[in-house]
Amino acid sequence: MRNRYLMRALPHVASALSDRYGVQVIVGGEKAFTNGATIHLPALPEKGDADFLCLVRGFLDHEAAHIRYTDFQVLKNVTAQEMPLLNSLEDWRVEKNMAAAFPGCRQNFQRLARIMFGSKDVSSFSARYRMQNWILLKVRSWELSELNVQLETLEQAAPAAWNELRKRVEPVLERFRHDAGSTAKALQYTREILCLLSSQKCVTGSPTGRANSDKKAGKSSTNTGRKGESFGKRVPGASFDEIGEVLSRRIAECDAPELPRFQVATCGSLHCEALPHFLRDEALRCAVPLRARLTGVLQASRLVRNRVGRTGRLAPRLLARSATGSSRLFVREGQRCGLNTAVHILLDCSGSMRNRMHVAGPACYALAKALEQVGVNVGVTAFPARAESEDSECTVFPLVKHGERVHQRFWIKPVGDTPLGETLWWLYPKLQRVKEARKIVLVLTDGRASSEACAKAAIVEGERLGIELMGVSIQSPYLRGIFHERCENIDRLEDLAPALFRMLQGQLLKAQTMSRG
């Protein structure tokens, strides 16, 4: 598979990770990082080589592992001297747990380790941080045996005193390997190793380093957890902490105006109330014609008589025909054609819909109710929603998820802009998981998308996935430019419900005609 297709799939991957791993993934912005609750991935170019793709997947899996398995309360008591070594141990521990829960992650972690550490020239490692680098490579070699070559090179180049210290540290690492049950355990072994290092004056193997460590030892021993200067700073290239920086740098290098950028919306919150009784009753009355029409079509298609033929189930009532030499003694059940369709309605709740929501909300409710009653798997999502954190720029709120019953809470207070493209990227992975073969998305909006490039790219991707996209725009010709003939523009609010019904009815009846043919 070409890399550009893999890169194109990454927004789907990010959204799926958000659902499966239980962590929030935001694709957008300029830097890759995580804040302990949310993974931030920069906006992605459409093209990228294999290493770039590996960085993205590995970054997502690695940070998801930390969010799932790291106890961040324990980290509050970690000193600056303990953190680098703890990172090395905890990275390996959470990745091991993640790979056990999701086996596909193991390959991503191994590829990422090859990129980050496999090409490192150990001879260039500073003697001051030789032990820290050795521990990092040692724990990584448990899953990637090819790193043993670098370990041997590092050990052979080290002085005898350093190797004596290494032999004392190695059994502690082996015990950790079989007893890595929690972040607290990783911290316990971190402190045990640092105690060994602090008791050994010859840490670096160089005269200067030895003198410096002697001078620092007296100062560091008075503070709990401050076990030696060689672990007091972050070592460039010595941790997976640099993945985000490397990834951000690689994305900046391929920053070109012609490359489309993608951002995936995340779930936010939205205050929804039940429709007033008079609006609900009016909406249900509007749904009657569509429901009656579709019900009649479905009944006609499902009441197909059994067919007599030469294959099928033997029919006793036809056995008399055998006397005349007829072989048509079997019956086959007629094909029962149903809609087999999932419909998802995207309702624009941006600020510009403030004076239109009293019509748009009930119209969407009526349409969803009619579709539900004729057996269509229906879902409704409002966009945008209110962000639950400052990091979430584009948010949506699922009013009705696929498989849920349609409720009456369609009375919504509009807010924000129109993240149409970001909402579509969020929706696609969820539509891919519904069992229905045919998938239709109906967008109701009154204005231009916040990012036209993102919206157009999302629509092209939806068509490639076989999703049928349609739009109804209110007093705005914008949607016709991106949906073309699959769009209807209305100038009066009272025309909204008929337009919604007309478009869905046409598409569903078209599907019925195709299934008959």
Automatic annotation (TrEMBL):
<dbReference type="InterPro" id="IPR025861">
    <property type="entry name" value="CobT_VWA_dom"/>
</dbReference>
<dbReference type="Pfam" id="PF11775">
    <property type="entry name" value="CobT_C"/>
</dbReference>
<feature type="domain" description="Cobalamin biosynthesis protein CobT VWA">
    <location>
        <begin position="330"/>
        <end position="390"/>
    </location>
</feature>
<dbReference type="InterPro" id="IPR051928">
    <property type="entry name" value="NorD/CobT"/>
</dbReference>
<dbReference type="Pfam" id="PF06213">
    <property type="entry name" value="CobT"/>
</dbReference>
<dbReference type="GO" id="GO:0009236">
    <property type="term" value="P:cobalamin biosynthetic process"/>
</dbReference>
<protein>
    <submittedName>
        <fullName>von Willebrand factor type A domain-containing protein</fullName>
    </submittedName>
</protein>
<dbReference type="InterPro" id="IPR006538">
    <property type="entry name" value="CobT"/>
</dbReference>
<dbReference type="InterPro" id="IPR036465">
    <property type="entry name" value="vWFA_dom_sf"/>
</dbReference>
<feature type="region of interest" description="Disordered">
    <location>
        <begin position="204"/>
        <end position="232"/>
    </location>
</feature>
